[in-house]
Amino acid sequence: MTPNPAPPLLHATGITMRFGGLTAVRAVDLTVHPDEILGLIGPNGAGKTTLFNCLTGLYTPDEGTITYAGKPLPTRPHLVTRIGIARTFQNIRLFPNMTVLENVLVGRHTRTHEGLLSALLRTPAHHRAEHTSRQHATELLEFTGLTRKSDHLARNLPYGEQRKLEIARALASEPGLLLLDEPTAGMNPQETRATEHLVHAIRARGTAVLVIEHDMRFIFNLCDRVAVLVQGQKLTEGTPTTVQADPRVIAAYLGTPEEDPR
Ligand SMILES: Nc1ncnc2c1ncn2[C@@H]1O[C@H](COP(=O)(O)OP(=O)(O)OP(=O)(O)O)[C@@H](O)[C@H]1O
């Protein structure tokens, strides 16, 4: 008997999301496998962020089903985080007046179970949980290269490091799947390259990644598979090589074949 193949980590079928008369996402199927890096590309307004919002409980799709690790996706964002899906946002959403370390500790709260009373009474259980959280946050700052900035206020970090901090904070919830919405927006080529390495390292830790990005070079270097959304519908998906060579993608998104698809 052949063993069952590993079930998909995230499985979305027939996702449709409307805003009044506008259908932003139409009957989209999307699957992310464990340990996979999947890219989601498409022209402006194609519905990429709307789909992310459906996958993270910010929106409830009008149609379709989503499962994570075989179970239906909860309908509230914090519960989605708790079951193992974390995300970053297109517009950075840090706590600007908290330190870098504190921002990561905030991201950890879905993994701590100590109640308010325990915190107020400063029980031994609370101290242990706090110690573990700090250790984990410190390790994540090292992992993302932000150790030296641990005590800096988030608002004083350069833009590229703020994006890294968002990723560190998302990782603090120990996700099985990380969704990145335009992680290299506003970065210089060196920072973009560093982000590519960071995403590979995240996958090596056992976290699958779904990433929206307009930088084609980044996407095609990074991803195992790429899905293409156009006007709310999935045009195609496949390996970077297949997608890059698909004339429909070139026509819809990448410009004419003569252009450098960057
Ligand atoms: N909250 C909303 N209310 C109404 N319309 C919305 C809302 N969010 C998105 N839209 C519309 O849905 C469509 C898809 O938008 P979305 O932001 O998902 O696209 P996108 O592919 O992420 O675009 P971009 O690459 O520019 O970020 C657009 O026409 C957008 O104007």
UniProtKB/TrEMBL annotation:
SMART domains: AAA
Record GO biological process: D-alanine transmembrane transport; L-alanine transport; L-isoleucine import across plasma membrane; L-valine import across plasma membrane
Pfam family, one: ABC_tran
Lineage of origin: Bacteria, Bacillati, Actinomycetota, Actinomycetes, Kitasatosporales
PROSITE patterns, per the entry: ABC_TRANSPORTER_2
Acetylation as UniProt keyword: no
Protein name: ABC transporter ATP-binding protein
Organism of this sequence: Streptomyces mashuensis
Domain ABC transporter: 10-256
InterPro entries the record matches: AAA+_ATPase, ABC_AA/LPS_Transport, ABC_transporter-like_ATP-bd, BCA_ABC_TP_C, P-loop_NTPase
Molecular function GO labels: ATP binding; ATP hydrolysis activity; L-isoleucine transmembrane transporter activity; L-phenylalanine transmembrane transporter activity; L-valine transmembrane transporter activity
An example Gene Ontology CC term for this record: plasma membrane
Gene3D superfamilies with a match to the protein in the record: P-loop containing nucleotide triphosphate hydrolases (3.40.50.300)
Keywords: ATP-binding, Nucleotide-binding, Transport
